[in-house]
Design goal:
The chain is built from 2 helices and no strands. By secondary structure, the chain is mainly α.
């Protein structure tokens, strides 16, 4: 038997969704930084950096899409009355 009921489950689902989309966005940003460092080292080594730049651009798009995808879940998670069940 649930202790806190459907409102708590809904809150947990919303929090989980926020965590997922923000985690996706964070991962893309971390990959961008890694690609930037790899490209810099490749340039110092006299290698082509074109592929790193293309991959970096793809990660920029992924980060932007994840940020856009986070808007609705975040709005729902902070909605007034959302955590009323905790009182």
């Amino acid at each position: 038997m649930p202790v806190v009921g459907p409102a708590a489950r809904r809150s947990a689902r919303r929090a989980h969704r926020v965590q997922e989309v923000l985690g996706t966005q964070h991962d893309a940003v971390v990959r961008q930084e890694t690609l930037r460092r790899l490209a810099h080292q490749a340039e110092l080594d006299g290698e082509s950096t074109f592929t790193y730049g293309r991959l970096h651009a793809l990660e920029q798009v992924a980060a932007s899409e994840a940020e856009r995808a986070a808007r609705t879940p975040v709005r729902k998670a902070v909605r007034r009355g959302h955590r009323r069940w905790t009182r």
